Amino acid sequence: MRWLFLLLTVACLATAYLTNTPSVLGIALLLAALFSFIAVLGFAQARIERVAQPQANMIANRDVSTLRNQAVLKKVAQTRARPPAQRPQSDDQHG
Fold first, then answer.
1. In a domain, 93, yes or no
2. Does some domain include residue 37?
C-alpha cells in the first residue's frame, strides 16, 4: 500500500508540473503532500514491524528481579567460598 501512495505522490507532482491552471496546481500539490506523508508513515510502519520483537520474547519484571536475586546470591556465595586475601605488610613496622 505504501508503494501505491508513493506512486500517487509522483503522479500528483507530475500533474502539478504539467498543468496550466492554478487550481489544479494547488490541488495536485496538496494531494502530493498528503500522499507523501501517508507513504512515509507506511514505510516507517513496515520498518518497525520488520525489526520489532514479539511480546513473547520480552522478559517480565518478576523474571528480571528473580535473575538479579540469583546473581546477587551467586556473587555472595563466591565471596564466601574464596579464602580471605592476605594483606601485604606495610613498611611502617620495620622502622
1. no
2. yes
Cβ burial, residue 8 (10 Å; 0-12/13-18/19+): middle
Q: What is the pLDDT of residues 10-62, one digit of tens each?
A: 999 999 999 999 999 999 999 999 999 999 999 999 999 888 877 767 777 78
Domain count, the chain: 1
Task: Compute the half-sphere exposure of residue 7: CA atoms within 13 Å on the CB side of its CA.
Answer: 4
Phi and psi angles of residue 87, each rounded to the nearest 5 degrees, phi first: -85, 135
Say if 76 falls within a structural domain.
Answer: yes
Contact assessment for residue 54 and residue 24, using Cβ atoms and an 8 Å cutoff: no
Which residues form the domain of 8? 2-81
